[in-house]
Every structure is written in structure tokens, then in C-alpha cells.
Specification:
- The chain is about 60% helix and about 10% strand.
- With about 600 residues, the protein is of the alpha/beta class.
- Among the domains are: about 200 residues, no CATH class; about 210 residues, P-loop containing nucleotide triphosphate hydrolases (Rossmann fold), CATH 3.40.50.300.
- Helix 1 crosses helix 6.
- The structure holds adenosine-5'-triphosphate (ATP).
- The site of adenosine-5'-triphosphate has 12 residues, from helix 13.
- Adenosine-5'-triphosphate binds next to helix 13.
- It comes from Faecousia intestinalis.
């Protein structure tokens, strides 16, 4: 799959425009309230600037008390109104912020769930997803995804105030304006250089962080607790953790040194800026070039002007930092995601067992030196039950993932009733398969919901119960007070239950039954089962597979006997093919493996020696 060709760093403006667009789409109320806050803020700044000068002018200008009270009262009333409205907008925005954050987080989850499995599995994609996720984390009380539009609005408001105050100050000296603006520019450049440095070294941090989390998770994982104690792994884990922690600390120290240098330059520039401006004003006042009210107005304007510059820089600064995170979010969201050409309809193939053809299919994992599967040509006839066997690492699971559309062949074509798999929409294609994978994943839903993969009211309860019982969970259901409404996972649901490995595997079988897809795939489903349960699964499989095309993977060769055909994979290619009897008669690898497995059950066998 082609990687994104866009630059990882997106401009601040681009991210701000993107954020406003997302806001308009997800929470339009936030956008309009935020926009209304801008003119209000400018009005308030103007009123606050005028107030002291107005008081001085009324007092020193010989106005009547009534005139002064009316003028000052009107301006005060306007100020209070603007403050009230501004705070009202702020409250609404704060409430809307979590909605906006929730909207973007759900977009991220949707993208992750819909993404092509092969792309999602890559380490690079997982790192990108992690970084995108961090954009919605609360950091120092702020969420980067919300910070960009918030701070951009702050920047616009302060820029308008800056223009207003600048126009007032330019009446004294355009030079003053140039001095104040130059100082702001130097400040901005410092901030920009720091942010770029942080962004460039961030990949290193993510890598260290990911490894730190992994080691820490494994050290605390209860499943690993036995191995840690018995194999004395604690020292090993502790040293690995310390080493990674040292690397992380060194990274932070390098960053902090840069930050400190930037702050020192910043401080020096502020000192020069304010010192110069106030000196000029004092000189003019002493020379009598300014009236008292003008002095008050310009003095307030200079300090206001400096505040706006400070606010703009701080908004810019915060926006830059947050913008890097928004870039991460966007980069993940814009990862290319092909969804098949979509002209074929899976519905046409759902009502019958389809024929599946692997036509010279090869597959190589990203970065691998060799193909894991090479030039596989295989046809699963409509309604045929095929067993796939082979040693560990032969490529069986990889073949299943290709068949189910989780991977795309590196070369060659997989066809369903003659239609290339790439011509289906991905979701549509997935509807054709009901796989039961080796690894079992159950979440904290009820048994019925898990079997149906649906939320409560959408579950066909009769069908769910039938499937759970058919998968061998009947006795379990009868023993549970809440039957199939019992929730899994004790940690989340206090009255939940934990299933044994075998029971969980049966639950996965029930899920495949409920889906009732025309192609059934079982990838080593009996690994966790006791002999009785294993036998039940074979019986169950035989019943489930009736009328469907099916692929069955098992290391227990005896279990493949009820399949129509057995295919043996070796080194990524098909080494042998036939029925159990013909393969035994051929005396090849299948026969050898079968003999090794079955000899332990021969009376008198003692590990290679007959008694
Ligand atoms: N995600 C992956 N990335 C890179 N290589 C992989 C990945 N998954 C599997 N492999 C490699 O591909 C080869 C085939 O793996 P696969 O899981 O398909 O074998 P298998 O026949 O199902 O093995 P087993 O019987 O142990 O389940 C192995 O060498 C494995 O290391």
C-alpha cells in the first residue's frame, strides 16, 4: 500500500482552518459562539482603554458633575455588558469543548476500525495512531485538538486589538510601533525554532515511550507474573526499564535546555521593548507635548499593546505546540485507505457456498526478505471442506488472513466465484466469512451480545441462544442466574464472569454460527480445549460447515479426517494435497507427521522405542 506523500508537518494556518471546519461539522454552536467572542473582546479592550483617559479628561476639562457621571457611567455600562456577554460565551464554549473533543475522538476510532487491517498492523501506523490519540489527551488542563481553534480565535482577537491600539499609538510615533512589532517578531522566531526542534525529535520520544509502556505493562501483567518469578525475569525487566527511562530523561533534558535559552532571549527582548516605549512617553510628557488625559491614554495603550503582543505570542506559542499534535491527528486520519473498487456485490455470493480460488498468490510481510506464501494456486470448491495443515510458521494463518481480506496478496489474485476479491467493498467482502481465530478476544459485553456482535436491543435473542447452545455452552447458560445476559469480565462488571479458555473458544464458535456466513474458517480452534470439548468442536464444526465452503486449520491431524481434502503447507507453498487416506498411502510429510502424532497413543510406545 502506498504511503502518504504529504509532509508530516502541516502549517499552523492549515491546521487552524482544518480545526474550524471540523468544529463547524461536529459542534457548529462552538464555532458561532467563538466567532461572537472576537468583536466582544475588541469592544471590551477599547472600553477599558478609554475609561481612565475619560475620567482624567472629565476631571481636568472642567465638565459638570452630571456630564462626567453620565459619560463615565455610559462607558462603564458598556464595559459591564461586554464582560457579561464574554463570560456567557466562555461558559458555553467550555461546555462545548468536551463535545468537540468527543466528536474528534469518535472520528479517530471510526478511522481505526475501518482501516485496512494490513495497514493498521504496521508498527508505523500504530505509532501514528498513538500520536493522533495524544492530540485528544488533556495536557496541563488543555486538549491540543481544542487548543488550535481556541488559540487561533485568541490570536485574531488580540491582533484586532493590536491594530486598534497600534493606530492610536502611531499618532505619537510610527517608530514606537516598529519597535514594539520588531520585538514581537524576535519572540515569535524563538518560539517557532523551539517547536520545530521538538517536532523533529518527537519520533525518538514516541519510540522510547512505546517501549517503556510495553516493559511496564509486561512487568505488571498478571499473566506474566508466574514467568517473572520462576525465570527470575525481574532484574532483566528492571534494567531494561531503567535504561529506557534514562533515554527518556536525556531527551527531556535536551528539550529543556532549548526552552531555557528561548526564554532568556524572550526576557531580554521584553526589557528593551518596554524600556524604550515608556522612556519615549515620559520624555514627551515632560516636554509638555502630551495633555494629562493623552498621557494616561497612551500609557494605557502601551501597556495594553504589550499585553496584546504577549497574548498573541502566547496564543501563537500554544497553537504551535497544539498544532503539532493536530498535524499528528490529521496525518493518521489522512492515511490512504483503499476500500476495494466496489463494483461487485457480496450479497450475490452470500446465499450459497461460493467457490474460492487462489490464483498464483504470493504474500510478503512488510520489510521481510522472503515471501511467507509463494505462488499458491488452490481452489476451494463450492461447499468443500478443506483442512490446512503444516508445521509452525508454514503460513497457515497468513493464508487465512489473505482469504478473509485482512491482507492483500503481494502478487496473484483471490477470486470468489470468479470475481477478484479486490473488486468487493471491504465491509461487504468481510460479510462472506465467519472465522474463528486462534487468539480469543472477549470484551465486557453479555454472552448474547458477544455472540451477536450487536448492542442489546439489536440482538436476535432466540438466535443467540440457539447458537450459544449449539456451540456447547448450554450447560453454562443453565448454570448462570442471568443466562445469556450474564456479562463477561469481572473487572468491569462486578457481577460479570470470567470464561475458561475452552469456554471462550466456544463463545467464538457461537459468534461464527450467529453470523451464518457462507464461508467458515476455523484457525486452530481446539488448542485450548479438553478432549471432550475438542471432540464436541469437531462434531460442531461438521454440523456448522454443512452447506458452506470451509477451511479448517489444526495441528491435530486426526481432526482433519472429516474434511473432504487436506492441503499441507510447507515453506509457504503447497507441498501435498489429497484425502487423509491418499496422503497416508503416499508416505510423504503428512504421513510422517501423522505417524509421529499417533504413535504416542500406540500401546507400548515409549518415545521412539517400542517396549
Ligand atoms: N504480522 C507479521 N509480520 C511479519 N511476519 C509475520 C507476521 N505474522 C506472521 N509472520 C511470519 O510469517 C510466517 C508464517 O506465520 P503464520 O502465522 O502464517 O504461520 P502458521 O503456519 O499459522 O503458524 P502456527 O502453526 O504457529 O500458527 C512466520 O515465519 C511468521 O514469523
Amino acid at each position: 500500500m502506498k504511503e502518504s506523500t504529504k509532509k508530516p508537518y502541516r502549517g499552523l494556518m492549515s491546521n487552524a482552518v482544518w480545526s474550524y471546519r471540523q468544529m463547524l461539522r461536529g459542534t457548529p454552536a462552538s464555532f458561532f459562539v467563538m466567532a461572537a467572542g472576537v468583536p466582544l473582546g475588541v469592544l471590551l479592550a477599547w472600553a477599558e482603554l478609554r475609561l481612565p483617559a475619560l475620567v482624567v479628561s472629565e476631571v481636568t476639562g472642567g465638565q459638570t458633575f452630571l456630564h462626567a457621571a453620565l459619560a463615565v457611567g455610559a462607558l462603564l455600562a458598556l464595559t459591564f455588558l461586554a464582560v457579561g456577554l464574554r463570560d456567557f460565551c466562555k461558559t458555553i464554549l467550555e461546555a462545548q469543548e468536551s463535545r468537540y473533543r468527543f466528536y474528534l475522538t469518535s472520528c479517530l476510532e471510526e478511522k481505526s476500525m475501518a482501516m485496512f487491517y494490513q495497514t493498521y498492523e504496521k508498527k508505523q501506523t500504530r505509532d501514528q495512531r498513538k500520536r493522533a490519540e495524544e492530540a485528544s489527551y488533556m495536557m496541563n488542563g488543555k486538549v491540543p485538538l481544542c487548543q488550535v481553534p481556541n488559540q487561533m480565535t485568541e490570536l485574531i482577537r488580540n491582533a484586532l486589538c493590536y491594530a486598534l491600539f497600534g493606530t492610536i499609538l502611531s499618532r505619537i510615533s510610527p517608530l514606537l510601533l516598529v519597535l514594539l512589532t520588531l520585538a514581537a517578531l524576535v519572540n515569535l522566531l524563538c518560539v517557532r525554532a523551539y517547536n520545530r526542534y521538538e517536532y523533529a525529535s518527537r519520533g525518538e520520544r514516541t519510540d522510547i515511550g512505546r517501549r517503556l509502556r510495553y516493559v511496564s505493562k509486561n512487568a505488571a501483567d498478571f499473566a506474566a507474573a508466574k514467568d517473572i518469578r520462576i525465570y527470575g525475569m525481574a532484574t532483566w525487566l528492571r534494567e531494561t526499564f531503567s535504561d529506557l527511562f534514562r533515554q527518556d530523561t536525556a531527551w527531556s533534558a535536551r528539550l529543556n535546555r532549548r526552552l531555557l535559552l528561548g526564554r532568556l532571549v524572550d526576557l531580554l527582548v521584553i526589557l528593551l521593548r518596554d524600556g524604550g516605549a515608556y522612556t519615549l512617553l515620559l520624555v514627551m510628557a515632560v516636554r509638555g507635548e502630551l495633555r494629562p488625559d493623552e498621557f494616561v491614554l497612551y500609557f494605557s495603550a502601551i501597556s495594553g499593546f504589550a499585553t496584546f503582543i504577549g497574548n498573541m505570542i502566547s496564543a501563537w506559542n500554544e497553537m504551535q505546540t497544539a498544532s503539532l499534535k493536530v498535524s499528528d491527528y490529521r496525518q493518521f486520519m489522512e492515511l490512504p485507505d483503499t476500500d476495494g473498487t466496489g463494483t461487485a456485490h457480496a450479497a450475490d455470493h452470500r446465499e450459497h457456498a461460493p467457490e474460492i480460488t487462489f490464483d498464483h498468490v504470493s504474500f510478503r510481510y512488510d520489510g521481510a526478505a522472503h515471501d511467507t506464501l509463494h505462488d499458491i494456486s488452490l481452489t476451494l470448491r463450492a461447499g468443500e471442506h478443506v483442512a490446512l495443515v503444516g508445521l509452525n510458521g508454514a503460513g497457515k494463518t497468513t493464508l487465512v488472513k489473505l482469504l478473509c481480506g485482512l491482507y492483500a496478496p503481494t502478487s496473484g489474485t483471490i477470486r470468489i466465484d470468479g470475481v477478484p476479491a479486490a473488486e468487493f467493498r471491504r465491509d461487504d467482502y468481510a460479510a462472506l466469512f465467519a472465522p474463528v481465530f486462534q487468539e480469543v478476544r472477549t470484551a465486557c459485553f453479555s454472552l448474547a451480545e458477544t455472540a451477536a456482535c450487536a448492542f442489546g436491543p439489536e440482538v436476535d435473542r432466540e438466535r443467540a441462544e440457539r447458537c450459544l447452545r449449539a456451540a456447547g455452552l448450554g450447560e453454562k447458560l443453565d448454570a448462570l442466574p442471568h443466562g445469556m445476559d450474564t456479562h463477561l469480565d469481572k473487572q468491569v462488571n462486578p457481577d460479570g464472569i470470567e470464561l475458561s479458555g475452552g469456554e471462550a473458544q466456544k463463545l467464538m464458535m457461537a459468534r461464527a454460527l450467529y453470523k451464518d456466513a457462507p464461508v467458515l474458517v476455523l484457525d486452530e480452534p481446539t488448542a485450548a480445549l479438553d478432549p471432550i470439548a475438542e471432540n464436541e468442536v469437531y462434531e460442531q464444526y461438521r454440523r456448522m460447515a454443512a452447506g458452506k465452503t470451509s477451511l479448517f486449520i489444526s495441528h491435530r491431524l486426526a481432526s482433519t479426517r472429516f474434511c473432504d481434502r487436506i492441503v499441507l503447507l510447507r515453506d509457504g507453498g503447497i507441498a501435498e494435497e489429497g484425502t487423509h487416506e491418499t496422503l497416508l498411502a503416499a508416505g510423504g510429510e503428512y504421513a510422517r507427521l501423522y505417524e509421529i502424532q499417533s504413535c504416542w497413543y500406540q500401546p507400548g510406545y515409549q518415545g521412539g522405542k517400542q517396549a
